[in-house]
Design a protein that fits this description.
With 153 residues, this protein is an all-beta fold. It has strands at residues 12-19, 23-29, 39-45, 53-54, 58-60, 66-71, 81-88, 97-101, 113-120, 125-131. It has no helices and 10 strands.
Length: 153
């Protein structure tokens, strides 16, 4: 496909992460050859049935250029989410960048909660219990792997 706009003007290094169960950050860098006055705008579409929405809370750099977006109350569906970042400049047309992302793949999990340890010194064993982390995309018990590091003092 032929993309309208100046080569090297589209954003680079686009990446998103979901954290604290329902927050998402997406960030990017300005295109290497984008004019200095280029401003970028992010649109996203959670599924084909929902309408495309613009970012509500941009992260700006020192020149007030949009370099990211903070999303609140994100919930993860089963379809890939569509992201589009386009740009505008007085000097030239700016190429757009787009990507489909499975949101569950970018979720940074919370640590387990309610960790309890009870030890029996006579029988020389300990029982460690915890609740699985809350996750954004499902209430089902998925197959979590846990790693326990025990340090003897």
């Amino acid at each position: 496909p032929v993309f309208a706009g100046m080569n090297g003007s589209a954003i680079e290094n686009f990446s998103c992460v979901i954290y604290n169960i329902f927050l998402m950050n997406c960030t990017w860098q300005a295109g290497r050859d984008a004019p200095a006055d280029t401003q970028y705008f992010l649109y996203w579409q959670k599924s084909r049935d929902e309408e495309e929405m613009e970012c509500e809370l941009y992260i700006k750099d020192e020149n007030f250029r949009n370099m990211g977006c903070v999303f609140q109350n994100v919930s993860i569906g089963t379809e890939k989410t569509y992201f589009l970042v386009n740009g505008s400049s007085k000097d030239s047309l700016i190429q757009f960048y787009d990507e489909h992302i499975d949101l569950y793949k970018i979720e940074k999990l919370m640590p387990p909660s309610n960790i309890t340890v009870s030890c029996d010194e006579i029988k020389n064993y300990c029982i460690i219990q915890w609740q699985r982390p809350q996750i954004s995309h499902s209430n089902k018990d998925m197959c979590f792997k846990y790693e326990i590091n025990v340090n003897y003092k």
